[in-house]
Amino acid sequence: MAVKDMTKLTLGPIAYHWSAEARRDFYARIADEAPVDEVYLGEVICSKRAPFHEADLPATIERLERAGKTVIVSTLAEVMLKRERKATGDLAAMDAPEIEVNNAAGLYARGRRAHRIGPFLNAYNEATIAWMAGQGATHVCLPAELPGPAIAVAAQAARDLRLGVEVQVFGRAPLAVSARCYHARAHGRTKDNCQFVCENDADGMPLRTTDDRPILRVNGIQTQSESYVDLLPETERLVADGVTHLRLMPQAVDMVAVARVFRATLDRTLSVAEADVRLAALCGDTGLSNGFYHGTAGYRRIAMASAG
Amino acid sequence: MSLAELICPAGTPAALRTAVDAGADAVYCGFQDATNARNFPGLNFTPEELAASVAYAHDKGTKVLLALNTYPPAGKVDLWRQAADTGARLGVDAFIVADMGVADYIARTHPGIRLHLSVQAAASSPEAIRYYCENFGVKRVVLPRILTIPEIRQIKREIPCEIETFIFGNHGLMVEGRCSLTNYLTGQSTNMDGVCSPASEVDYARHADGSMSSQLAGFTIDCFGAEEKAGYPTICKGRYTAPHRPDGYYAFEEPISLNLSRLLPELIEAGVHAFKIEGRQRSKSYVRGVVRAFRAAVDDIKAGREAKIADLIALTEGQKQTQGAFETKKWR
Fold it and tell me: Is residue A184 part of a domain?
């Protein structure tokens, strides 16, 4: 079997406050149509949002598994309040499905039972990955800002330890989290009194510089990149370097079509050049970037060197 | 009552001596490379300077804490290991770490030296803190600047280690160790390179109407009227527009610094063991003034006297200051 056939396409957890109905429709379509192998569910950003959609979780898991997808539930990136500690502990106590841990509080609760390491846990290097593997990690998603050469070293280390290794190849990059809710702040509210104003921004709230240049996106307590990360041109390199899973982050675009473009690129039924044109068309006005991978400013788009 | 140790910034050997002489219980510093989170030009220590500085500090009964609090990118871990080995050889009293791989290395290789968990590790719950205590023998946690005093009091009851909090200086808005904003605009990473809004990428542009804009890597971060003093372009203190805020607003926080001097007695009572003053990039005279004022305040409180809080307030006179998350949940 060729290496490319073993590469898994994954769908990361929804970062935004999409309504329960929107989520149900989204995952029904993913289950029926999207060529992704694994799907991450769960609320990662704001514990206040979870009650809106957690009741649907069992049905969504069942729906996706019936369609042949592997389902993983992700835990919160920030754990501070009692309800966040409890939510993390409850997920860590589950036997199935798999869980992806995004905070050390989740590692503590999980103990040495098998788990995946999420992108918020700062697995930047081989020493940390080896430590995590010794504690029961079976899979690691690398931080979004890790440059290509470091990804290659980390992926090799992970493979030597028989861990899956994942890199985000599409969607806004997670840049920061805070205790403060910037969505609430923009509307003159506080986090405790937010009235869930973030639900109006399905793809994040755009921030522009005062001279009108797009710069960042606000998603509750999270700050994201304005551009969508696009590592389509780099997928072949990533796979050759030992990355086993490529993550697409859900954005407010046709994610089934996005997944098809990546799948076709992996299957080599579509050239990278053609695939990138299609992807850009699916993303409308949103800029695409791969700066982090190339060790430069994350927002930048670095053209691929010609064949070689 | 806690010991209320004062942990003071030492960006240079001269600043270290100044902090020691002004009454620091401990100073914290780093090497001249990516192994610490203040990897700024002109700052930090060569191994030789650190050796002399450890001797100076120990002679006066002051501890030296070595910050190794960045995250090594894969392939470069040896730089952090060598820095730990050098620090151990030179007799530092503790390492301040964030990365699990670095913590594991030090715990195994230098088990006799204390480990402090950096604010960069973002451990903000008892479970997260216990993870580091139980696995690496961490003796002290530097808490993220996102907790209220009642929350700190609660955490103290549930963890087996000392607590250190920031009390004064720059007020970071994002959870430390989880921020790639600088890398997104400049290509230099806070976590991997120890860089935040680097001076080499800063520009100030004067406009025809006399106004001024501050820029980072070509992005306008803030703008100022002709009479206003232009601030430093830190991304999380910048002014932006949003659909509901077309005129521009400080989307994350205003340019403001943290001053918890009024809360000092309460923090001591809550069980905070050590207080950290931010500012390794600051001048000797700044360090001298701030350390002396906090030394006097802490000594007064420990002796049961009223602290002269006014002296501490005066340190930031003319600047906006905040008690941040510590005073009330409304900050969030």
Answer: no
Q: Is-contact A34 A66, C-beta < 8 A?
A: no
Q: Which residue of A has its CA nearest to B179?
A: A176
Residue numbers in B near A298 (CB within 8 A): 180, 183-185, 187
A91 within a domain of the structure (yes/no): yes
Map out the domains of chain B with their CATH numbers: 5-171+256-331 (3.20.20.60), 195-250 (no CATH)
Task: Count other C-beta atoms under 10 Å from residue B158's C-beta.
Answer: 11
Q: How many CA atoms lie within 13 A of B87 on its CB side?
A: 33
A134: in domain? yes
Q: ipTM of this predicted complex?
A: 0.96
Identify the sign of the CA torsion B33, B39, B43, B49. negative
* CATH number of the structural domain spanning residue A52: 3.20.20.70
Residue A235 sits in which domain range? Answer: 3-173+228-271
Q: Which residues from chain A sit within 8 angstroms of residue B124, using beta carbons? A: 78-80
pLDDT per residue, tens digit, chain B (332 aa), is: 468 999 999 999 999 999 999 999 999 999 999 999 999 999 999 999 999 999 999 999 999 999 999 999 999 999 999 999 999 999 999 999 999 999 999 999 999 999 999 999 999 999 999 999 999 999 999 998 888 899 999 999 999 999 999 999 887 778 999 999 999 999 999 999 999 999 999 999 999 999 999 999 999 999 999 888 888 999 999 999 999 999 999 999 888 888 888 899 999 999 999 999 999 999 999 999 999 999 999 999 989 888 887 777 777 655 677 777 777 777 77
Q: Which residues contact B210 (CB under 8 A, 6 or more apart)?
A: B225, B226
- Specify if A209 maps to a domain: no
CA distance A168 to chain B (A): 15
Q: Is A65 at the interface with chain B, CB within 8 A?
A: no
State the angle between helix axes of B126-136 and B100-109 in degrees (0 to 180), rounded to the nearest 10: 40
Contact call for A216 and B72, based on CB within 8 A: no
Q: How many contacts (CB atoms, under 8 Å) link A and B?
A: 231
The residue of chain A with its CA nearest to that of B182 is A297
Q: How many domains does chain A have?
A: 1
Tell me how close the Cα of A208 comes to any Cα of chain B, in angstroms.
5
Provide, as residue numbers in chain B, all residues whose Cβ is less than 8 Å from the Cβ of A135.
135
- The verdict on a CB contact (< 8 Å) between A299 and B101 is no
The DSSP-derived string for B84-151 is HHHHHHHT-SEEEE--HHHHHHHHHH-TTSEEEE-GGG---SHHHHHHHHHHH---EEE--TT--HHH
Say if the Cβ atoms of A178 and B175 lie within 8 Å.
Answer: yes
Could A206 and B223 be called an inter-chain contact, meaning their C-beta atoms sit closer than 8 Å?
Answer: no
